[in-house]
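Hey, I was hoping to borrow your eyes for a little while. I've dropped the whole record in just underneath, so have a look:

——
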Amino acid sequence: MGWRERDWYLAPDMLPALFDRSGNVGPTVWWNGRVVGGWAQRADGEILWRLLTTEGIGTEARGAIAEEAERLRAWVGETRVTPRFRTPLEKELGGQGAS
């Protein structure tokens, strides 16, 4: 994901939510080869996610994303995932507030 031009997989309006001030990307949700949102893990282990677009996202996609989020929660178990470079959306979803 180190390409300067990311429009082929990520809408430019998502950049402020998914990247920190240094250009590091946070946890992302993908559907059909494109970034469609982001996710975070709360202190209690819950995986929260948010779609940042609804283009091409129907019931099937939402269900699949929710299923994968639950599968991830079960897989990490008691482990807590905190990215080194926190992004605004990850902070918000993770309960840390954006800064």
Remarks:
- The first strand starts at residue 28 and ends at 31.
- Residues 59-76 form the longest helix (18 residues).
